[in-house]
Design a protein that fits this description.
Length: about 240
Amino acid sequence: MSTAFRPDLFQGRHVLITGGTSGIGKAVAKAFLAHGASVTAVGALPAEVEAAEADLPGARRQVLDVRDNAAVLALVGSLPRLDVLVTCAGVIRRHAELEPDVFADVLDINLNGTMRACAAARPLLAASGGSIVTTASMLSFFGGGLVPGYAASKGGVAQLTKSLAIAYAADGIRVNAIAPGWIETPLTGGIQEDQARYAAIRDRTALKRWGKPDDLTGAVLFLASPAAAYITGTVLPVDGGYLVV
């Protein structure tokens, strides 16, 4: 968790995090809580949401399927105010994404789900002068032969981020993205178990290590903070130098 910011940086602010009960999203939720925010963290699976209780004391936790637009609208409509939206909900289905139906479902969660959350949050964010941080990926820049749905969705998130930065600017809403590299989360569990593949990725990364979820939190807090008041439409790699090697 980032400790580079004053503890009350987000005091009085409300933050909504999709995919906020596991992996990167949970680390981000913990970081906002530690810096004074009121946090609503949502996840797709009841067991996952329940299991996050110990890690997210004081947060509102709720099940949400980002494919369900009515549910997204209802969740956002239940909030008294909103200052920051962070979209971390996402899936990856290696090999299976070569099938059109699976490909479409991955896009519906990762890309369309991001758009649903942003569109639903826009009125509240406009009222507060808030901001959005989406989650792109290094696969926003590279192709992925076994994960065409994931790569296409994350390329779409990067372009969506830039497009919404333009569309929402008149409302005073900033829209930026982080682009994580290889991070040790449940989403990459299968690759972590392959020692040769794990080592190859580590060695391909400039900093010679995989990232941890906490490595992403400083970038998210910065992009959501007043320090980034003149930054919008940015896709910020947080990848240990994987893209530059």
